[in-house]
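thoughts on my protein:
***
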Amino acid sequence: MNILSLFDGISCGRVALERANIKVDKYYASEIDKYAIQISNKNFPDIIQLGDINNWKSWNLSNIDLLIGGSPCFVKDTLILTKLGYKKIQDILIGDEVLSHSGRWKRVLNVGYRDNVSTRIICGFGNNGIETTNEHPFYIREMTKTWNNLKRCNQRNFNNPIWKSAIELNRNDYCSSVVLPNNQKKEIDKIFWYMIGRYTGDGWFRKSKRKQRKNSYVYQFIICCGENEFEELKEKFDNFGYKYNFSKERTVYKFRICNMKLVSFVEKIGVGASNKIVHPDLFDNNNENRKSYLEGIWDSDGWHKEKDDVYKLTTTSNLLAVGLQELIYTVYKTPVRFSYIKRPKTCIIEKRIVNQKDTYEISYKLDKRKQDKAFYENNYIWMPIKQNYITNENKIVYNLEVEEDNSYLVNNIIVHNCQGFSNAGKGLNFEDSRSKLFFTFIDILKYYKPKYFLLENVKMKKEWQKIISELVEVEPIEINSALVSAQSRKRLYWTNIQNIMQPKDMDILLKDIIESGTVDRDKSYCIDANYYKGGSLKNYLEKSRRQIVNLSPKNLYQSEKCLMVKDCVQIGEADINGFDIIKRVYSIKGKSPSLTTMQGGYREPKISEDNITWRKLTPIECERLQTLPDNYTAGISNTQRYKCLGNGWTVDVIAHIFSFLPNEWKSI
């Protein structure tokens, strides 16, 4: 049998063919990830690598018996506004809540990426440039001018908002941002948030261990001010509700509060001026607290140019500037200019050579005029586009799928899902590049006319599923990997292989596939993740037991077709940065959740063998979850192993499907 595998990854299809006892004559693979290709070639040196699928017309293959395959768009550092602050798009996880164009927090349903894609830059009022693909839709209003004979001037007119692809944007288009929801359920504490604003501009914290004192730490919340600000800031500290002291050092005063909880709260703002961010709690808060925070940071780092009535602030932190911009949109309902200033690496201050960093300046004014280039209207800020140009570079690009509203904010600008099977937007459903990969599969299917085919994809909206089914002329079968492995992983499979039945439930749990021995025991962490630092281990473990949440099984993946699968059993949460989905700790008496590309930040599923400590799944355990041989992916870094495994197939599911091929294709 001659096989053509598209988006081949680490050749799980080849493993499945051997496991199903299918004789392979030639196995052609189309893949561009160098690490995946390295793994495939290590395990199957006879695989014929074809490279990029976009070059398929030059392949010139013959007699393909089986076609198989499983089938985004901003550069990696693009900032996405989530309910807990800004994240780089490559760090967004399924389950994160992002701000949509309707001003609502909506969950991310899927994250995708593509490599080697050409990009362009969209610049305008309020942003320094968004790097995206040609086809990505922006939420814009088109502006036209008509002559007003009475006023003897041109008058601007704006149409209703539409979605328009990046390549079509021009200087008559106005892109948009949306204000944050006003969560009035949050407690109003103006003095507290004013002080957090002052801290963001002029503060830092100290958290250090006392010398020669076991398990004793110093926590200090510190704000500095000049002599001319002393009396005003002292009055604020008097009303802050914490005991404090102050000292004079040269020409400044330092105020100190020793409080562990306060230090833990401001830790989220970051360390060092260039790393500070808006405190994440402000994005899901009320406007009274947000306004107090802005007043605090402006009193510390900002200034008011009275002549032009302009408020300005300069910072070395891009994340802080972007966050403040969104808060100003929300609180004052006014556009905000955003400027990047590249500075020399050094400067001279008081006859000393001092290192300096590039800065970001934001500015706004409260006086609104009709002739303003940007304006606020009905919860949206509308800002003119100034430049739109191609970069002549190919990069990795990312895209998100967001529930219901199908939109999110990129560097505070509204964009639409770049989703090929979405019927929303400007008729892009058969034009965007992500869909073209699927349609390339269809083109190849029609061109080579193989005897059999298999197409795998995630569960999706019914309308997208219907489109695929109509094009391949078969309905999908849904199979959960939980039937043949210790992983709950629902997928749809379109194939013309006949009479496929559900696999038998093998009743495999995590405890059946974990590595024996001590594996990562020395690197295990207590379930509350406040790492044991000495003292009474017995008391510490008792405390950890009390902090375990939800000891009863929690069904995280309910089967619509009532498959007999075991529940994923969540027994606790790790206290690590990120959203709930990556904090969950699973019992070995249940199933693992579906593997993802798991790159960095403790994204690997976490398990507990004793209900006290947790650890990450090892690469070998992830191979077993995908029913691959142990060390199948050995030879590359663990980070790349996790990624390749998350992108792979559950081999025993595919082998089960191939087992229904006619006997003529099977080895004797």
